Amino acid sequence: MLEFMYNVFPSTNLIINIVLISAFILNLVFAFTIIFMERRQAGAIWAWILVLVFLPLIGFIIYLLFGRQIQRKHIFKLDKKDEVGLQMIINDQLEELRRGDFSKNNPSIVKFKDMIQMLLYNNGAFFTNDNHIDIYTDGHDKFDALLKDIYAAKHYIHIQYYIFRNDNLGKKILQALEDKLDEGLEVKMLYDDMGSRGLSVKAFKRFRQKGGAVEAFFPSKLPLINLRMNNRNHRKIVVIDGMIGYVGGFNVGDEYLGKKKRFGYWRDTHLRVTGDAVNALQLRFMLDWNAQSFRDTLKYDERYFPDVESGGNIGMQIASSGPDEFWEQIKYGYLKMISAAKYSIYIQTPYFIPDQAFLDAIKIAALGGVNVNIMIPNKPDHPFVYWATYNNVASLIEAGVNIYHYDNGFLHAKTMVIDDEVASVGTTNIDHRSFTLNFEINAFIYDRDIATRLRHIFENDMKVSYPLTKDLYQQRSLWIKFKEGIAQLLSPIL
Q1: Catalytic choice (142, 158, 180, 414)
Q2: Is 158 one of the annotated active-site residues of the chain?
Q3: Known catalytic membership, residue 74
Q4: Which among 88, 120, 289, 491 could disulfide-bond with 388, CB atoms 3.0 to 4.6 Å apart, if both were Cys?
């Protein structure tokens, strides 16, 4: 017996030692990968190294799930013919900008032509100036309009959401899509696998039987485990007949109608667009769809890109960003707006966890006499994210930034308005996740009327908000200070 025990335990110890040494080597490999092979900010590097050091066995599993970056290869591809056509449009607009012949009749466009050039050059975000925009801040209004447009569709519907729930609202929209399939229309749906993780394939059984096509973005290859947890498609796009497009913050679920007690009233901002900017939304949907669908890919067709007479005159660029790109395009768009501000900045965001460059840009604007206003929700949907947001906005009070807590439910809008001249509305939060990890989309709008309307919406929200003052912030409890500290430490990887 003793001889048996002697023989067993040494081998067991040997196995344990091998496991520990392997974990240590893996930690070293991941640490060197993070430092030398991947493009990260210093704060994110140190945060991941701390995770790997203090959690030697679990750390590399967490890294595999949350920390891996996408290799900068072309996930989204165009046919060579389509790519050449798009590049011609971009080159023509760049040449017009160089000559000074670009939209001379619109003072906002002339003033921000360098920003237009930046998004055009880095992102291929071609400019259109014949658009009409409807703004929705209430979920009932937005989805009533969407359902009306779905039922009025004549040819096709392309729909993409980060979250699509199989609840009352989700079933209502799915039923509308199935009704259009019965009429012979083309219907394609793309949803994010992690954002819509409660969505089962069974929910689309009848949809598929009727001829509908549905795909999940970066689907899980293993049950309950997705090795792309951090690289999610956060975009919300709807294109109907190439004539109407939707983009903004609303997902599909009952909570977006204010029907979840946890959140209360859901305050968001979404755009309904008609005009040539819809072509940019269509192109973005095609790229996202083709990245995940290998049997039913979309190719250029005139019916997908019709010449639309909207009757509007609003200038727009549709910019997108993601971890596959070298440039953080939407973040750069935000920074360009802030640096150009002379009088006022209005920002609404549920998460405010920017890098130091962004914080410095805000402080410089405020210290330079610009009226800077930031509104965040007064309740968290992600605790760590909320306390990191709280800490970051508080750091701006000394610089003279006005901070408001929305106190009428949950604020999910992602908007920025500069000098009543230019605005941005989309899916991009002001945090590391949106800037670096997620696939996002924003509309950059060069129009005084739209910018002024969005400012008025902010000011109306101030009636149900309260200011975060220096005195109020200093009164926070020790427990809140502790949560802020932990959140700040983790903020580079939140």
Answers
A1: 414
A2: no
A3: no
A4: 491
Choice between 241 and 197, residue whose per-residue pLDDT is larger: 241
Does 463 participate in catalysis according to the annotation? no
Q: Residue 367: pLDDT band by 50, 70, 90 thresholds?
A: very high
**Angle (nearest 5°) at CA 396 between 392 and 398:** 135
Kindly report the CATH class assigned to 80-111+129-316.
alpha beta
Active site residue 301: no
Range 295-307 burial, b when 16+ CB lie within 10 A, else e: eeebeeeeebbee
* 140 annotated active-site: no
The predicted pLDDT at position 338 comes to 96
d(CA 129, CA 113): 13
CB atoms within 10 A of CB 59: 22
* pLDDT score recorded for residue 30: 61
Catalytic-role residue among 241, 420, 431, 461? 241
456 vs 74, more confident? 456
Q: Return the biggest CA–CA distance within the chain.
A: 95
Annotated active-site residue 236? The verdict is yes
Kindly name the residue from 188, 234, 270, 336 that is annotated as catalytic.
234
Q: Which of 2-11, 45-54, 162-171, 267-276 has the lowest mean pLDDT?
A: 2-11
Predicted confidence at residue 300, as pLDDT, reads 81
CA 410 to chain centre: 17
User: Domain 329-493 is in which class?
Assistant: alpha beta
> Considering only CA atoms, which of 101, 119, 432, 131 is closest in space to residue 309?
131
